[in-house]
């Protein structure tokens, strides 16, 4: 038994070493990525469930590394966060996404909303509000056309000061969405205290629709509760017609997913939209 313990220890320490080496490599490559234009932003459209009108876009960061190949956000965003690089890179995404939305609005006259994911590290940065205010001015985009997506993880500590900051952002006119709803420590009591505009139901619930005997009431009750709180409900990860029909029938406001379009370069998306 003692021996087994030793082996197990060795296994874990080797495993950890690999993980650490990997993240050092990822970090080193990431520091160069922006200079070498290895990072890009893909955009996915969101549609009104009832009318199929384009509601706007979500900006999603992409990294195609010359050394590491295509790296998924789930792998490199945590490294950006650990190293603080998420602050300049996040600001870059924010500016680029606002610019694309402004250009799109000028070109088409549509009142599209750009949704941008904000890491807790960015959100808690003392310059965050000042920075986005100046970017919005610089780009000349009205704040109502920007939606900041935050996750429940942001609320774990300093709940009151986070709420204050959300209020400040909303006073500015920026929209706030709670992303990945249902995956965290979701409690309806705290939801009522949050100054937000939109609830994005996590993909795992949307996947459940396809299961034959799925707990069908879950989506219906999230939607009715959210509507009672005057929140817009977005379903993400919609992949099939059956899901579209189900979500539309249950009064979901907005739909997003591969069924409509995969995230892609803005140029290509525009082409697809016939713009
Ligand atoms: P998220 O914000 O929940 O984004 C939705 C994810 O679902 C995206 O993955 C998107 O490509 C994927 N998706 C959309 N529709 C479908 C579908 O129909 N089926 C399936 N299977 N997937 C779908 P992605 O692009 O890999 O991003 C993963 C996560 O990385 C995001 O999750 C977000 O938390 C984070 N992320 C991405 N870009 C940024 C960024 O610029 N800043 C920050 N802070 N986080 C980002
Ligand atoms: Ca998101
Ligand atoms: Ca999400
Ligand atoms: Ca997610």
From TrEMBL:
Ranges for domain EAL: 23-275
Coiled-coil intervals: none
Domain of life of the source: Bacteria
Protein name per Swiss-Prot or TrEMBL: EAL domain-containing protein
Source organism: Paenalkalicoccus suaedae
Taxonomic path: Bacteria, Bacillati, Bacillota, Bacilli, Bacillales
Full-protein positions shown: 491 to 765 of 765
